Amino acid sequence: MNQFRSGWVAVLGRPNTGKSTLVNRLAGAHVSITSRRPQTTRFRILGVHTRPDAQIVYVDTPGLHPPAGRTLSRYMNRVATGSLEGVHAAVLVIDASGWKADDDYPLEQVRNAGCPVVLAINKIDRLHRRGELLPLIESCARRHEFAAVVPISALKDENLDALERALLPFLPVQPALYPPDTLTDKSERFLAAEFIREQIFRSVGQEVPYDTAVHVERFRRQRGGVHIEATIVVTKEGQKAILIGKGGAQMKQIGQRARLAMQTLFGFPVHLNLWVKVRRGWADSARELRSLGYAEDA
Predict the structure, then answer these.
(1) CA-CA-CA-CA torsion sign (139, 140, 143, 148)
(2) Cα–Cα distance list, 224 to 211, 258, 260, 267 (Å)
(3) pLDDT per residue as tens digits for the range 70-127
(4) Which of 1, 143, 251, 262 is deepest in the core (most CB within 10 A)?
(5) How far apart are CA 216 and CA 193, in angstroms?
(6) In terms of Cα–Cα distance, which of 183, 176, 26, 171 is closest to 93?
(7) Phi/psi of residue 84, each to 5°?
(8) SS3 state of residue 36
């Protein structure tokens, strides 16, 4: 009889390899926000998948890149590298277009962590010829002693069970770490802010999403649902105008889409009010970052 296993698995890689989409698919719920733009993820977020034989706690992380730039960027890198502490295994995610120079830095971090690493080659649904996979797998396998190299498509749910089977031997035999119905460690209040930020990334171009933060001012449960009031913080007056849009149309669209995403995950009606506020230099201020929910050591 197989014994039940449970443990922690960090999911890492350079920006825009599909890590959050992968964690959402494995957890079976939209717990980590996604967009087509790199560096959408800023926080450490757990996606919990409970199977009959195991519970795998996936740790989604911001995209790893050499430390530089704003205080916010350095904070995100520390979140990603710190997520390797205490995990039983790691999944290093690249995409099927091939190994890039920017993949070297995440590989260096997982090497330093010393944990077993499974390489996931994501986005294989974009390949014109599957025959391209074998030479890519062979080339990647020479870069590190990976526990396994698994081609996947997170978007199409392809080969994800094979990825989990490669991870299971590294999890200790022990009871589940969370109740079986747990999907994530984050509160509904936190997820509400993230769903708003997700729609900003999906709706607004240029640099605006990267200069944006969301703070939930009020999260009040009431009969039949929840009432949420949130402030979107930007660095410039021009960004505020872009977010609001002509006649408030852009803000209305962001709010509607975020509200629907919340209702799908929460399972109850959501009433959402949004405001936009300019706070110059917030992404370079440790004090401002703390006030907006980022780590104390930002």
Answers:
(1) negative
(2) 35, 18, 15, 11
(3) 677 777 777 777 778 889 999 999 999 999 999 998 999 899 888 999 999 999 999 9
(4) 262
(5) 6
(6) 26
(7) -80, -15
(8) coil
